[in-house]
Amino acid sequence: MCLHLLRVARAASTLGLLLFLGACASVPTTSTNSRYVIQQDRAPTRSININEIPEVLPEPINRRLAGNRSPYTVLGKTYHVMATEEGYSERGVASWYGEKFHGHRTSNGEVFDMFQASAAHKSLPIPSFLQVTNLDNNRSLIVRVNDRGPFHGDRLIDLSYAAAVKLGFADRGTARVQLDAILPPTYANERAPAAPEQIVDQHASGMDQESYLQVGAFADLTAAEQLSFQLRRITELPVFIRSVASNSSQILHRVRVGPINDPGELQRLSDSVVAARLGSPYTVTE
Prior knowledge:
Elements: H1 2-25, E1 72-74, E2 77-79, E3 89-97, E4 118-121, E5 128-134, E6 140-147, E7 155-160, H2 161-167, E8 174-182, H3 185-190, E9 211-218, H4 221-231, E10 239-245, E11 251-257, H5 263-275, E12 282-285
């Protein structure tokens, strides 16, 4: 009797072990915190013919809440999405992203295609359109902004690999670029003319134009004020915020220093701003 019970116990034990092993077989042998199979981003294995990269033509858009929630937080930092891209113009560092993200959904639900000219931006409404100019070689193209990022370093925008190839910096990884928003056709046609800035017409008054260093442009006034405070720590020149309102209720806050009419002083201050990692300034005249 005892021998029979022992045999039954051994059989049950063996069956339990087999069931356990069967259950383990259905569990992935590896785990990851990322939805991407490739851990380190990289360029595609095949080369791209620059002439085969489709040109992006601004088109009527229908924005959804997806990708445009504001504010939103990434890696402990909070970002605000602009109400409109109208009047947006900024300089900074561009990087590119490629195969790791290829075929995955972007922030607004579109599929990222590294062979198309697209981009990721932290605060522009998506989708939207930007003209991007590589300041090192003056190459320019239009991209469709349909994703969020980049969220590391001092990067202003992430471009698709194809866009980086067309702008001539895919082999270097980053480039200094000028960004200028392009309004979709129907938006540009249907909106009323924007109210002009309330400034003195210096040509009419016989005055010479004056130069200013523009360090940044923000939809968020708090961000503009923070930058102004930091700039006052490195220069005794006037630092001010020029807020430009459009009839679409969006206000863009431009942080400027000046007037500065000495080219040498302009360059020295620009170098100081870059060294302090406060932005990528450029000269404007009024």
